[in-house]
Amino acid sequence: MISPSFAGPAVFPRPFETGLGRLVAEFGLRPVEYATTRAHATPAERAADVNAAFADPSVKAVFASIGGEDQITVLPYLDCEVIRANPKPFFGMSDNTSLLLYLWNTGIVGYHGGLIMTTFGRPHGISPLSADSVRAALFGPREYELRPAPEFKTVDQDWAAEETWRTPPPMEPGTGWIWHRPDRVVEGVSWGGCVEILAWHLMADSEIQEDPAAYDGCVLFLETSEEMPPGTEIYRTLRNMGERGLLRRFPALLWGRPKTWAFDRRNEPAERARYATEQREAVLRALAEYAPGTMAVFDVDFGHTDPQLTLPYGGRIRVDGPARRISVTY
């Protein structure tokens, strides 16, 4: 257990401790906390925990407690040789896109998903779809078919409120996936993550391969956070990827179901639907201009909404357009 970004367990211990308990009771794992897991720490101190977790032969997998917003500052302190010599599964998403990018460039497959506080510490139990995919990822290797969520949640509950732990989370009926140009089968190595974090790396020229051909044939997967960037920002980020020669390298794109509600933007259903449509239209506009041949699937449940499917990062993803199926290899 590490907190390479925000020390969420120090602020909200209940979902973290709930998640640890489920790791033991439902998955048979033994959690080991590193020094900064519940402590606000410097980037160098957090990096030391990452290095130590990978170096320790008794540790079989590494989990991030939660995301954050400054993990890009941790990367310069990582020991690439130690991590490369001790490959193991790392589970994280959101700001952990930074570490997943780093591992991809190091040749280590990571896992987008499986945060302790949100996936495992979810009030009233782990979502069955989340539990099934993270279990498959943990105890693979195996091929695993993703399924559209029968219900989902985008409205958050306050971890500090006792009512949250007494009342089941508010779920909405699933809407299925939306397919664009599903006329082929694409299988490739996965790359992507949270759009906002990826944009920071593009701006900093950090962890992005200099030759765009490094991404030829990869399956791109992207999702957005609770900051809910407007459609114009999404379009501009993808446009910049297009101008860099990146976007057209990906023959398939998986787009996560957008987060459409936050505590500082409590959108009503109509506003949530309008935002999701605006985001999808921004993506399609960028694809039309820079990657017209790319197949895309929208509203796949691997992002900041619930449930959270776990995707391999640097592993294989197969997108079968004619059959409308998506499978991953853990």
What does this protein structure show overall?
- This protein is an alpha/beta fold.
- It is 33% helix and 17% strand.
- The protein folds into two domains: 8-121, Murein tetrapeptidase LD-carboxypeptidase, N-terminal domain (Rossmann fold), CATH 3.40.50; 151-329, 3-Layer(bba) Sandwich (Glucose Oxidase, domain 1), CATH 3.50.30.60.
- The protein is built from ten helices and 14 strands.
- The strands form three sheets. An eight-stranded mixed sheet has the order 4-14-13-8-9-10-11-7, sandwiched between helices. Strands 1-2-3-12 form a four-stranded mixed sheet, covered by helices on one side.
- β8 (185-194), α8 and β9 (219-223) form a beta-alpha-beta unit.
- α9 (231-243) runs parallel beside α10 (269-290).
- The chain is globular.
- It starts with 7 loop residues before the first helix and ends with a strand.
- Belongs to the peptidase S66 family.
- Keywords: Hydrolase.
